[in-house]
Design goal:
Elements: H1 17-58, E1 59-63, E2 78-83, E3 92-97, E4 100-109, E5 113-116, E6 122-124, E7 127-128, E8 148-149, E9 154-158, E10 176-177, E11 181-190, E12 196-197
Antiparallel strand pairs: 1-2, 2-11, 3-4, 3-11, 4-9, 5-6, 5-8, 6-7, 9-10, 11-12
């Protein structure tokens, strides 16, 4: 062992209390930052997992493309559909058609007799229905004969913008089968100024 190896540290080699406190504060700050970072990562992972579960199991996010449901739903608005097969008259539903999800309002269910006059007034089972969600009535594009009886496990649907909507009034789309139904609109999520729960 050399004299150099066995020498006693001089006082100048020992860090001061202030320096030790600074180093400790730095380590604690670094530990705090790491802890916050991992907390944020965990929160983001959990949020992503919850979003994935909601979007695949309970809710479906749909962006409106077009004006067929105007004024109720406008082009580029974003809505949530709750996945369900329990559909009632008046519900705005999403259903698969041509690889897309279309949104229309249920006017009649299985067994209902539907009639639409030349002015576009809709009767279900002999009664003209109130449609406060319309800005105007219109027969629109129609190539089916009335009265029309809705087949079993099907829904007669119309867009709220009757002048432009292609819906159950045409053979192109016809009635919507239960198996086509994704769910019903429950929330308008965007824009924020029009956010609201929907029937």
């Amino acid at each position: 062992m050399t004299d150099k190896d066995s020498r006693i540290p001089e006082l100048s080699d020992i860090p001061s209390i202030a320096l030790l406190r600074e180093e400790l504060a730095r380590e604690e700050a670094l530990h705090s930052i790491r802890k916050k970072f991992w907390n944020i990562v965990v929160i983001l992972i959990v949020a992503a997992a919850v979003t994935a579960v909601i979007s695949t199991r309970l809710l479906v996010l749909v962006r409106i493309n077009g004006n067929s449901m105007d004024p109720t739903l406008k082009d580029e608005e974003v809505v949530f559909l709750r996945q369900t097969k329990e559909i009632e008259t008046g519900d705005v539903i999403g259903f698969y058609y041509g690889g897309k999800i279309l949104l229309k309002r249920v006017i009649g269910v299985a067994g209902d007799q539907i009639e639409i006059d030349k002015e576009g007034k809709v009767s279900v089972n002999g009664r003209i229905i109130e449609e406060p969600y319309l800005s105007e009535t219109n027969l629109g594009k129609c190539d089916i004969e009335f009265p029309y009886k809705v087949p079993q496990e099907m829904f007669f649907v119309l867009g709220d913008n009757r002048a432009v909507s292609i819906d159950s009034r045409t053979r192109t789309i016809g009635c919507v089968e239960l198996d086509q139904v994704v769910g019903k609109v429950v929330l308008r999520a965007w824009p924020l100024g029009r956010m609201e729960m929907m029937r």
